[in-house]
Amino acid sequence: MSEVILAATDVRKYFPITAGVLKRTVGHVQAVDGISLELYQGETLGIVGESGCGKSTLARVLMGLIPATSGSVKLEGEELVGMKPSRLRKIRRDVQIIFQDPYSSLDPRMTVGKIIGEPFEIHAEVAPKGERRRKVQELLEVVGLSPEHINRYPHQFSGGQRQRIGIARALALRPKVIICDEPVSALDISVQAQVVNLLENLQSEFGLSYIFVAHDLSVVRHISDRVGVMYLGKMVELGTEDQIYERPTHPYTQALLSAVPVPDPGLRGHRKQIVLTGELPSAANPPSGCRFRTRCWKAQSVCAESEPALEVRDGGDHPSACHFAEVIDVTHAAY
Amino acid sequence: MPESDILQAGTPADSKAVASLYFDTTAPLLDVQELRVDFQTKEGVAHAVNGVSFTLEAGRTLGILGESGCGKSVTAQAIMGILDSPPARVVGGKVLLSGVDLLTLNEDARRQIRANRIGMVFQDALSALNPVFTVGWQLGELFRKHRDFSRKQAKQEAVRLLDLVGIPAAGQRVDDFPHQFSGGMRQRVMIAMALALDPNVIIADEPTTALDVTVQAQIMKLLADLQAERNMGLILITHDIGVVADVADDICVMYAGREVEKADVYAIYDSPAHPYTQALLESIPRVDMKGQQLASIQGLPPNLTSMPSGCAFHPRCRFARERCREDTPPLYTVTPGRLSACHFFQEVLDS
Ligand SMILES: Nc1ncnc2c1ncn2[C@@H]1O[C@H](COP(=O)(O)OP(=O)(O)O)[C@@H](O)[C@H]1O
Ligand SMILES: Nc1ncnc2c1ncn2[C@@H]1O[C@H](COP(=O)(O)OP(=O)(O)O)[C@@H](O)[C@H]1O
Ligand code: SF4
Ligand SMILES: [Mg+2]
Ligand SMILES: [Mg+2]
User: Fold this and answer.
1) CA separation for the pair A8, B212 (Å, rounded)
2) What residue ranges define each of the domains in chain B, with the CATH number in brackets?
3) Quick one: which of A42, A177, A165, A44 has its CA closest to A103?
4) How many CB atoms are closer than 10 A to CB B204?
5) Largest CA distance in chain B
6) How many CB pairs under 8 A join A and B?
7) What's A333's DSSP letter?
8) Phi/psi of residue A130, each to 5°?
9) Cβ pair A265:B67 closer than 8 A
10) For the segment B230-257, what is each residue's pLDDT rounded down to a tens digit?
11) What ipTM is given for this predicted complex?
C-alpha cells in the first residue's frame, strides 16, 4: 500500500465535567480514549459506531480543531499535538472537514461565493485576489453547481446542494485529506447517492484521502477501503472493508451489522439477529476491562478484569479488541 | 348473516360521540380513498397529498415509503385528524375506519377515535410527550379520561404498559419525566401511549429515524411483536427502504404527494414496476454487498406549488418520453392488487 499521510497514536480526548459555581472539575468524559490509526495516501478509512461513541471528537482532534488530551497526531510525519497555532493554521490547509449539517455549517448571511472563497483569505498564497472569483466558479463547477449561482445565499439551495457547497469550500485549498463527518446523514436517499458519487469522483480526480465518519454501515461499506469500529471512545475492531463486513470478530461489530436492515424481504428471518440489551454506559464512568462487557452476550469474568487490546488474535486476520474474538457471518443469510 | 352480527356498535369504551356510529366489522379495517390535502402557502396552493388510496387489514403491516416532503406525515395526520387547518385543508377523499368515514365526524368523535381506535407513534418522542408531567401521569391520564379509572388504577395500568413495552424497573420509572429516558426508552414510552387503550390501528411515523441501528432493531421488533399479538393493523411510515423490507406486508411508494406504486413487499423489491421505485432501490448501498457506483436519481423532487405537467416524476425519469410530459398516468393495474402510476410500467418491469 501507499504511504501513511495521517497517523494517530494513542490519542485521548477527555472533556472535563464541572460542577458548582466554582466550576470545579468533578470528572471527565472519556470521549476518545487511546485510539491509534493510520490513513494511507488515496484511501478512504471509514469510522462507524453509534452516536456518542466519539466519532466527531476523533475527527476534530485529527484535524487539530480541538487539542488532544494526550497522544500524537502526525500529518506527513509532522506532529500536530502541541504545535504552535500559527504553524497549525498553515498546515491545516492540507486537512479539511465536511460536516453533517449543511444547514448550520454555512453562514446564512454570506453569499456562496464568499463562503467558498473564505479559505483564500487565510491562505492568500493559493489564490491571489484577482483570481479568486474564477477559482470559486471553478469549484462550483467541480461539485456540480452552476457557476452563475456564485451570488446566491445558502437558503436558496436544497440540502444536497448545500452539502455540495460545503464540499467546494473544503476543496478550495487543495487539501490532501478530507475528514467527512456524517456528510450524507441528513440527506434524502436519492440525493445521498449523488453526494457519495461526487465524493468518490473527487477522490480519484484529486488523489484525496478520506476519513469517512458515519453511523450508516451500508454507506460506509460502500465508500471505504478500510473500516474502524468504535464503541465508547475505543476502537474495537479495525480491518479492510471485506474483513469487517464479511468476517467480523468483535461481538459489538457483529451486533451492529446484524441490526442493519437489508432491502431484500427474501432474507427476512434468515439473517442472524443479535439484539443487544441494556443501555449505552456513560463515557464519564465507563465499565472496567472491556467497555462493551455490560451489553455483551459473551462476557466472562476476565472481561471485567482486563482490557482486551486491539490486536490480531488466533483465527482472525485483523485486529479485534475482544478476549473471545471469533468470526461470525452476520450480514448474509444463514439457511 | 343477521345485520346485528355485521354491524357492531361502538365498544362500551367509546363515549356518546362515538357510540352511535356503526363500525362494520366486515369492511376493511382502514380504507383511505382518494385523500387530498392542500396547504395554503405564500407561493400558492401546495398539493401535499394528491389522491392517496390504500387499504389496511387487521394483522397486516403497510409500509409507506418515500423521501422527505412527499406527503407521508400529512397523510398520517389527515387520517388522525390532527392537521393544523389552516394552513392545511382536506379537500377530498374518505378515511373509512371499519366503514365509518372519519372525515365526516365532529372533533369530539375524532378525539375519541384517536384515543380508542387509532394510536400514533411519532419520530420525535421528546416533543410528542409533555415535558412537565411524569410518563406515568401521562399514561394514566388516558385511563382516567377515557376509562373513568381512579388515580390508583390508572397508575397500575401505566406500570403494566411500561413493563409491556420493555422498560426495565417500570414500577420506579413510572414517576420519571420524559427527558430522564434515553431516546430508545422514550420511544417505548410513546408506543405504550399509543397502545394504551387497545387501538385497532397503529400509525408509526418514522418511529426509528432518530435512533441508532441497534436500538432501531429493538423498537421494530417490539412493534412487530405487539402487532402480531394483538392483531392490529400497522402503518409504518419511513424513508428507509431496508426497514420496510424487514417488516411490511404491503408497500405504498409515494412521490410528490401521490402514490406511484403499490404492491406486495416481495414483488416490489423483486421487480419494481415504477421508475422511481426502481431508481430508489438502485441508489442505496447494501451492507451485505460491496456494490458498484450508486445509480443516483438526477435532480430534485418538484416544488408542490408548481408541479411538472403530466407525470410528476418525468423530469427525473430515465424512461420518460413525450407522453409523460402530457398525460398524467393513472394508477394502472399491473397484476391484480399491484398498481403503478407509470405509462411504461411493463418496460420498467422488463428492464
Ligand atoms: N465539547 C464537549 N464537552 C463535553 N462533552 C463532549 C463534548 N463534545 C462531545 N462530548 C461527549 O463526548 C462523547 C462523544 O461525542 P461525539 O464525539 O460527538 O460522538 P459521536 O460523533 O460518535 O456521536 C459524548 O459522550 C459527548 O457527550
Ligand atoms: N405547515 C405546513 N405549511 C405548509 N406546507 C406544509 C406544511 N406541512 C407540510 N407541508 C407541505 O406538505 C408536504 C408534505 O409534507 P410531509 O407530509 O411532512 O412530508 P413527509 O413525506 O416528509 O412526511 C411538504 O412538502 C410541505 O411542502
Ligand atoms: S410515466 Fe413516464 S415519466 Fe412517469 S415514471 Fe413512467 S416513464 Fe417516467
Ligand atoms: Mg458525531
Ligand atoms: Mg414526515
Assistant:
1) 27
2) 4-248 (3.40.50.300), 277-351 (no CATH)
3) A165
4) 26
5) 68
6) 124
7) B
8) -65, -20
9) no
10) 999 999 999 999 999 999 999 999 999 9
11) 0.86
